[in-house]
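To fix ideas, we give here one paired sequence and structure record:
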Amino acid sequence: MRGYVDTEWGQVHYRAGGPAPADASCVVAMYHESPRTSAVYQPVLDAFADDVAVLAFDTPGFGQSDDAPADRPLADYASVLLQALDALGVDRFLPVGMKTGSALVTAMAVEAGADRVPGAVLYAQEEPDDDAFERWATDWAPPITFPADGSTLTKLYAKNVGLYGTEHPRVLYEAVADAISNADRYASVYPAVFRGHRQTWDDMHTLVAAGVHLTVLEPPTAQFTDHDPIVFGVVPGTHVLPMPTTGQFPTLATSAFVDAVTGALHRSGLVAPIAAA
């Protein structure tokens, strides 16, 4: 199932699996990395227990959602994405975010509070480096050009190799296709995410202190470029799970991803813990 909800930024598109939120025992809300779309969660929309409603949203400015206003901070994105959940009648829920989606989820959890968001699933984070992240805010996603030699395609492909490796070329091609098809707005969220990274890191500490159960999925390796490896930090009190791939967990590590989210539902109390045998 797919649909749209109205927010102050226009329509937000979503995909859904499982029962309607009103008929479910709990709700999982998933947020993609950029410049991807909710389609990355298609492999897991119906992979959970029959009573779990799963929603996957296109971030404003991506997929089939309307544009985000320019230069808005993470907190504004969070408010709009919570409006989308409100429109669907969702109260308590478990948000799941990968990469840029993690920053959105963290901001959403802070705004919603621990009663509404008792747990979350995030992608691993680096410790803050203000100078480096300001550089990425301006340089990570330069305007896409269309030279006749096709070199933009090879540059985007090489860029994604650092993030995902070379074992699954189709994933790289799909990431390139999403960037090209969204060329005029694919960079829209990156300044907010990179400039808000220190706030995201601080918010993770705040959420843990408030009793929110954070599950952090950590890949074996990742890098921005050949010269910029990503060194993940650990926020005390988070539940860190090693993953078998560098990203695209719903597609490339489906079972591990579903198990991680299911475990987070139990740890957060949204689903009753499994009784010991």
Notes: The mean pLDDT is 94.
